[in-house]
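Our consortium's second objective concerns turning raw sequence data into structural hypotheses that experimental partners can test. To show how far this objective has progressed, the report includes one record in full. It was chosen at random from the queue rather than selected for favorable results. The single chain below, 251 residues long, was entered without modification.
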Amino acid sequence: MGNKRRTVRIIGPGKAGRSFGTALERKGWILEDYLGRGDDLQNAAQLVDLLVIATPDEIISETAKKVLPNPETVITHLSGALGLDVLSPHESCMSFHPLASLPNSHLGADLLESGIWFGISDHELAKEIAAELGGNYFVVSDTERPLYHAAAAVASNHLTAVLGQVARIALSLDIPLEAFLNLASGTIKNIESIGPIAALTGPAARGDDQTVMQHLDALSEEEHHLYKTLSNEIRRLVKEKNDFGSNSENC
């Protein structure tokens, strides 16, 4: 498109939509009006280079059908779980999913520009935007989307649930959660450096069943299920580590 400034319109003025709009506007895109609930969407794809459908997943398909197709406009959604079929009947389609939690438009835009990863469809504009935002990307096919989104949910939502258990235990001891968040962030840095198996520490990892039982005796009954489940997962990682080591020695 040469030096022509590209234009974007966003349907869905929520956290994700406004974060994406703010980030693109910072990069020189012309941001047209946000469209929301109750707006006429028929001509939303006219006179823009990119139309973003940033609605909840369950209404992306019906939203796309309300828009008259324009072959000159690329249509994208921001869902991690859905493929391109939900953007029918539009022909020029892509998906662009940021692997980040976007709390509001300004912090969200900062995150989008912070070098994060994007899960995208195999579309040149998606690759260009990821690079423009200073991020990394990988291509996810439609058939791989559910598994990819499951990994994202574990990394974000399940981690939150685990830290929720930490918060409950900390509260019972009158210890601030922040004290344990430092420990958690240090663990994540270790995983980033050496991987999850090598970063394993703690009683379940070293087979200290006596300490594990002491933990369970101290914890309330409501906390047992999650603690036991995660301890078993730690033992599974240890087994993988041992199996890998055995295979390496045989090579």
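The partners drew two points from this record. The chain has nine helices and seven strands. The beta strands are 7-11, 30-35, 50-53, 74-77, 93-98, 117-120, 136-139. Both points have been shared with the crystallography group to help prioritize constructs.
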